[in-house]
Prior knowledge:
Low-confidence stretches: 1-29
CATH architecture of the largest domain: Up-down Bundle
Helix content: over 70%
Strand content: under 5%
Mean pLDDT: 83
Number of helices: 7
CATH topology of the largest domain: Four Helix Bundle (Hemerythrin (Met), subunit A)
Radius of gyration: 22 Å
Order of helices and strands: HHHHHHH
Distance between the termini: 46 Å
Number of domains: 2
Amino acid sequence: MCASLxxxxxxxxxxxxxxxxxxxxxxxxxxxxxKRDFIARADAICASALRQTRSISPGTNLAVYLAxxxxxxxxxxxxxGALRRPPGTARDRSTLAxxxxxxxxxxxxxxxxxxxxxxxxxxxVASAEAxxxxxxLESLAASYGLTSCASxxxxxx
Length: 157
């Protein structure tokens, strides 16, 4: 439809040409990006990361397991951070910013956990696990309206 609209011969005043261009842009999908769009993309990212982590065998060695999980968790956080932010209320923008900050913090906690497991430092492992357990990530995701990212079985948190 857009191609047929664009190929029409416009022989009118510059004002009518501009008006036609505006209509053309609207007809070609110039719709706005919404919170619903963001949520759909974010939840797809979280669901994919969860599938990936579930495919990693936990085995008996925590360090080996975390070495395989950490890249998935980091990729998930990077992808979520790269998503375009939708317009919204100040509260929504604040909640989303807090969620993304908590996601970055959780990646750091996973790095600490992986390093501690690699070193065999049980005290540091317990500390990193406690930090992950106390993360507000799930509640922030749920507050924003994310479902896959708010799941208790999500990859981060």
